What we know:
Blueprint: E1 2-4, E2 10-13, E3 21-24, E4 30-35, E5 42-48, E6 56-62, E7 65-69, E8 75-79, E9 89-94, E10 97-102, E11 110-113, E12 119-125, E13 128-135, E14 138-145, E15 154-160, E16 162-169, E17 172-179, E18 184-189, E19 195-198, E20 203-209, E21 217-223, E22 229-231
Antiparallel strand pairs: 1-2, 3-4, 4-5, 5-6, 7-8, 8-9, 9-10, 11-12, 12-13, 13-14, 15-16, 16-17, 17-18, 19-20, 20-21, 21-22
Amino acid sequence: xxxxxxxxxxxxxxxxxxxxxxxxxxxxxxxxxxxxxxxxxxxxxxxxxxxxxxxxxxxxxxxxxxxxxxxxxxxxxxxxxxxxxxxxxxxxxxxxxxxxxxxxxxxxxxxxxxxxxxxxxxxxxxxxxxxxxxxxxxxxxxxxxxxxxxxxxxxxxxxxxxxxxxxxxxxxxxxxxxxxxxxxxxxxxxxxxxxxxxxxxxxxxxxxxxxxxxxxxxxxxxxxxxxxxxxxxxxxxxxxxxxxxx
Length: 246
């Protein structure tokens, strides 16, 4: 991994294990989740601070897990199986602190950072979906959503008062703004294969087909607060990626 300064010059390089998942900690450090050679049932969770030149092993975690960004120097870990003295559930970890915040979650739950140190979790609930807002103190909000929970359903950080959910509702794929007070606001009809990212100001940026019969893509910006849309004039080929704030 190469660390760059404000002039885009490399000022530090640190080795990273192959096939590692890397994630920022929000305070200029990096977390790494890496396979352990010859030990296929565990992964190594390591942290690299801005002050150190070497990775610090924080702990081993079960191989069936996922990490979610924290903005306060820690990391969220969704463990899906027993192992390494960790029960299934949602854990919050820092270098010198480890706490299980939630009991076992659905294995296919979709999680994203709330941009303020907590997470939003979307999971299947009956014929629809359910979203939770979870902080280090536990579950703060539970809201039933009248939308299908499918493989393509997405939950997207917006770094504002709520979260974006891209899902199918009443036969139509769309992007919804789910507010922390429980309000659900439709914001944009967005096809199933649309790519959605957010910026740091609460807007969603969407790359989608120009039309159903076209392979070209266009970019649409939607404001959560006002619903105002802006469609760019540029066109992009299929396979183009879209990057956001996270």
